[in-house]
Amino acid sequence: MKVSRVASVFAAALAAGLIFLPLWWVFASSLRPGNSFVENLTPLSWRAFLPVGGSFANYEVLLDGDFARALLNSFLVAGVTVVLGLAVAVLAAYALAVLNFPGRGYVFVFVILVSMVPFDAIAIPLSGLFSTWRLSDSYAGLILPALANGFAIFVLRQFFLGVPQELLDAAEVDGLGRFGTLLRIVLPLSKPALIGAGLMLFLSQWQAYLWPLLIGTSPGKQLAPIALANLSNLYSVDLGQILAGSFVLSAVPMVLLLFFQRQYTESLSTSGMRG
Hints:
With 275 residues, the protein is mainly alpha-helical. It folds into two domains: 1-55, no CATH class; 56-269, MetI-like (MetI-like fold, Orthogonal Bundle). Helices cover 69% and strands 0% of the residues. The chain contains 14 helices and no strands. The chain has helices at 2-30, 57-63, 66-98, 104-115, 120-132, 139-143, 150-161, 165-173, 177-189, 191-206, 210-215, 224-229, 239-259, 261-269.
């Protein structure tokens, strides 16, 4: 038993190391000026993974330019999406989990089916509609399509189904009503599911590329992935700055996932308890 446990720990550590190694290489390479990091790639040298003689000059230049404003835009858009998206998902999930109305099962199936359609498949015609509605190049245009997230609704609905019916009945007898029961009974018990759904909403916006490319056309409304892509142009490519930007964009969700790892895992593990 002890040998198997040691082997499991070793395998997990090895897998974690292999997953972390590329990100560490990006960080180490981002500390080198310009494109000098390629000197250690052919042939591959151990120096490629150690930031020997490096500096944070790439990060300083990057955060003094348009990328810093785009990064703030990404935080703003993702933060507003989390707040408003959770409000939409909570109300929809609560209705699908608690309220008995004709066709409730069909509505839930429709939500799941729609969430499986790749957004990129409808992004171009949807951008035409947003242009007609004068929502192009606006924060509202960047945020609105991400508010109704089917997977967030699914996670919350499954968690709400696990709330004991006795608690809901007792709250109704006490006169709380549907909305009061949601606020005072259901939501305090659903913190893991709320965190999991919030992370889904945040990640969907943080890594979005096609929709911000179609909607956020001016430099003032660009998000960080678009600004990162714009660091490469026809006349010059500073891979050091591109790697620095890539590390920043990767580190933010990584830190969030590490900080909320337990709640996020719990929200996913409980999403299949009841149908």
